[in-house]
Specification:
The protein is mainly beta and 126 residues long. Helices cover 0% and strands 49% of the residues. It is built from no helices and eleven strands.
């Protein structure tokens, strides 16, 4: 069983930045493909970003590409999401996700995910 614990959410003004962290335990971290999803109020959960085991490959949703950066530290067993140029449309609960499946280049639906974190709230004020 994998445990995922997010942190780093909060309130920020539009144009600002937040850095989310997700600490993983319970399984060899480097065997997990890691990602982030988000769910805005009244909306479906959506894919944000994914990163391969080694960290060499990443893929982003179009809405965040160029503003968000996913990275991982396989020594610290942590995945990060650096969010820049935030807008109120980025307000959501952000969920860390892990899968034991092979990395794929493309949008994840969530069905591929084996483990979820509890979520961390990010609120962007205008």
């Amino acid at each position: 069983q994998v445990q995922l614990v997010e942190s780093g959410g909060g309130l920020v003004q539009a144009g600002g930045s937040l850095r989310l962290s997700c600490a993983a335990s319970g399984r060899t971290f480097s065997e997990l493909v890691m990602g982030w999803f988000r769910q805005a109020p009244g909306k479906e959960r959506e894919f944000v970003a994914i990163i391969s085991w080694s960290g060499e490959r990443t893929y982003y949703a179009g809405s965040v590409k160029g503003r968000f950066t996913i990275s991982r530290d396989n020594v610290e067993n942590t995945v990060y999401l650096q969010m820049n140029s935030l807008s109120p449309e980025d307000t959501a609960v952000y969920y860390c996700a892990a899968t034991t499946r092979n990395y794929k280049e493309g949008i994840y639906t969530g069905d591929e995910i084996d483990y979820w974190g509890q979520g961390t709230q990010a609120i962007v004020s205008s």
